[in-house]
Amino acid sequence: MTFDGFSEAALDFYDDLELDNSKSFWEAHSEVYRTEIATPMRELTDELADEFGPAKIFRPYRDVRFAKDKTPYKTHQGAYVPVAPATGYYVQIGAPGVLIGAGFYDASPDRLASIRAAIDHDRHGPELERIIGSLMAADWEIGGSTLKTSPRGFPADHPRIELLRHKTLTVSHHLGFDEVIHSRALVDRIRADWRQTTPLLDWLVRHGD
User: Fold this and answer.
1) Which residues form a coiled coil (predicted)?
2) Distance CA 167, CA 109 (A)
3) pTM for the whole thing?
4) Of the residues 89, 97, 138, 161, which has the fewest C-beta atoms closer than 10 A?
5) What angle do CA 104, 167, 207 make, to 5 degrees?
């Protein structure tokens, strides 16, 4: 099967799920989830696998064991292509439309220390700045969780203190409801966007060990 876009029914499903996040709603609409969301997401990522590798399609169920919010279902469907631990390419569909992303989404203390050491380095740090600058110039949004203060061992006036504060580092493009999400052209759009983020992921792989 080939990917032909996400349908309006996929967006409607998540609009409705945000209003009624219940087992009864899910069971009544599970076929819509399967045919309009899960299957197209697999078709989409399969078409990208030749260049980027196989994707992990996330389960739709939330882990509510330690959460105050006990709603059982995620209000988006995500897929992720790993290139290193908790690092890789990302795409999701939900009520706000389609989002494309990449970056590192979690890091062990040792790995985060390695990344920060590279950011501090006189050559590797400016290289990351140039990569981030190029992505921002191409309208990528820089995100991730950050410290409110300087990480231990780094001065507040460090020239790359904003990067050093990151505990995770992501970039994202929000396609929203652009017509491209309803067509096969979404494959090429994601392919082009993920290619733009490859230098960032390559940098993280090289310096995150």
Assistant:
1) none
2) 9
3) 0.95
4) 138
5) 55
